[in-house]
Amino acid sequence: MKIVICGAGQVGFGIAEALSREQNDVTVIDRSADLVKAISDRLDVQTVVGHGAHPEVLKQAGCDSADMIIGVTLYDEVNMVACQVAHSIFDVPTKIARIRAQAYLDKQWGDLFSRDHSPIDVIISPEIEVGNTVVTRLALPGAFEMVSFVDDKIALVGINCDANCPILDTPIKQLTDLFPDLSTVIVGLERNGKLIVVNGQQTLIEGDNVYLIADHSQVSRLLGIFGKNSEQTRHVVIAGGGNIGLYVAKKLEQLGRSVKVKIIENHNQRAEFIADELSNSLVLNGSALDGEILREAGTMKADTFVSLTNNDQVNMLASVMAKKEGAKSAACLLSSDKYTSLIPALGIDAYINPKSTTISRILQYVRRGRIRGVHSIMNGAGEIIEAEALNTSPLINKALREVELPDGVRLGMIVRNGKMIMPNGDLVINAGDRVVVFAIASAVKQVEQLFRVSIDFF
Questions:
Q1: Is residue 139 part of a domain?
Q2: What domain range is 312 assigned to?
C-alpha cells in the first residue's frame, strides 16, 4: 500500500513507524527539515520537505499513485486542504484527517465533510478519542487500560499485578480450572519492559502488566480476582478544564448516574466558561499543584483523580500529590513517551497517551482485509485487532489445532451471532465470526493475511 503522511510530529512518526515496519510504501511530508531528517534517519520511509497542502509537494511525494493520504500536521486547515487537493487533483481513494477544533465537528455542519464538499473519509478528533478513553478508564479505575471491541461485547483489560494480587505464582493454565465460568483469555504481558505472548506454562509475578481479552460483562469480577477495586467511580476530581477535561465532565454528567465531578482550572476566564457549560459539576479556580485547592476539591475522598492539563510534568506531580492526599486512584495525561517508565515508580495507577490513542484509530482504517478495530499497546510494541473471518480466510473450516498461527499471535475471543466463544483446539471458525487477536508488532502483517480479502471474494 502506498501511503502519504502529512506531518512528521509524534503522531506522524508513530504512524510511519508502524506502517513502514509492515513494508508499506510510506512518504512523509513536513515543513520542518529537522523533523524530516529525524524520520529519515530512523525509519525506512521516503521524505519530502514542504507544505503538505501544496499540489506540487503532494505530487513530489507520489500522491498521484497513492492509495491513502493521512493529514496529521499541527493545523486542522492544512490537514483538510491536503485531503481536498489529494481528492480533486490526484483522486486518492482514502483520505484521513486529524481535526482538533470542535467548531468543525459540530453536528449542524455534518455535511461539511461529504464527498461533494470537503471529501474526507475519516476524521480523527484527538480530544474526543482521548476523552472517551478517559471516561472508559474512570468507569473501572482498577484497570490501567480498557478498550471495547465487537460492539462492546468484548473488552481488552490491562491489569497490573501488584503484591496484593491473589493469583501470583499461579500457572496461567490453572486459572481456567479455578474459574471455569470466567470468559477471559490472558493474551500477553509486559515484563521488565518487554511485551511477550503468554502460554499456559507461564506464571504471573509481581510487577507484570497483564493484557486480557474478556467478556465485557465480567470485567468487574475479573478485577476482583486480581485484587483490584472493581467498584465504579462515584467521585471524580479532574485537573485541567481544557477541551479534554470539559468533554470528560460533560460525558460523566450525561451518564445519568450519581457521579460527583469537580474540576480544577488554573485560568479564571476558562474556569468561568466551563462552569457555564456544565450543569452538575463544581469548578474550582486554582492550581492542581496547590495542596489547599486539592483539599477543597475533596481529593481525599475521591475515587479517582485524573490530571488532563497540557503539561506532562504538572499532570504527573498533581497525580502524585492527589494520591498523597488520599485519592483511591490517580491517572494522568502524558503526551510524551519519555515519562511513561516513571509512572509505576511514582505510584500513579494509569496514564493516557493521546498519540497512542490517535494512532490506534488511524491504523484501524489502514489495515487491510476485514479489520474492524485496532488498539496499539506499549507504544506500538503490539496490537489488539478485531477482524471478521471471510470465506477466503485460511482460518475457517478447520479446527484451530490444525491452523498454523504465526509466532507472536494469540487468539483472544470469537463472537458468533452475538455469542462469545473461548478459543480451544477443537473450535472451528466460521465465515462471519468476529475474532479478537493479540499480536506483537512483527506479526501484525501476518494477522492481516489471515483475514485477507481475496479477489475471488468480489
A1: no
A2: 235-352
Burial 171-205 (b: 16+ CB within 10 A, else e): ebeebeeeeeebbbbbbbbbbeeebbbbeeebebe
DSSP symbol at 150: T
Average model confidence (pLDDT) for the chain?
89
Residue 18 corresponds to which cell in the numbers above?
508502524
Q: Would you say 334 and 274 are in contact if contact means Cβ atoms under 8 Å apart?
A: no
* Residue 317 amino acid letter: L
Type of residue found at 152? D
The phi and psi torsions of 381 (rounded to 5 degrees) equal -65, -25
Domains of the chain: total? 3
- pLDDT over 70 at 457, yes or no: no
Residue 330 CB burial class (10 angstroms; 0-12, 13-18, ≥19):
buried
Residue 233 has which C-alpha cell? 467511580
Rounded to the nearest 10 degrees, the angle between the axes of helix 126-139 and helix 354-366 is 110
Distance separating alpha carbons of residues 254 and 341, to the nearest angstrom: 34
Q: Could you tell me the pLDDT band of residue 102, with boundaries at 50, 70 and 90?
A: confident
> Which CATH number belongs to the domain containing residue 383 in this structure?
3.30.70.1450
The per-residue pLDDT for range 122-161, each reduced to its tens digit, is: 888 888 888 988 888 887 778 888 889 999 899 999 998 9
Which CATH number covers residue 120? 3.40.50.720
Q: How far apart, in Å, are the Cα atoms of 293 and each of 279, 287, 318?
A: 21, 7, 11
273-282 long-range contacts, CB within 8 A, separation 24+: 274/241, 274/245, 274/246, 274/249, 277/246, 277/250, 278/246, 278/249, 278/250, 278/253, 279/253, 280/253, 281/249, 281/252, 281/253
Counted residue by residue, the chain has a size of 458
Q: Please give the DSSP secondary-structure letter assigned to residue 169.
A: T
β partners of residue 284: 264
pLDDT tens, 152-196?
899 999 998 988 899 999 888 888 888 988 999 999 999 988 999
Highest mean predicted confidence (pLDDT) among 19-23, 238-242, 355-359: 238-242
Residue 197 lies in a domain: no
Average pLDDT over residues 385-398: 88
Within-domain flag for 163: no
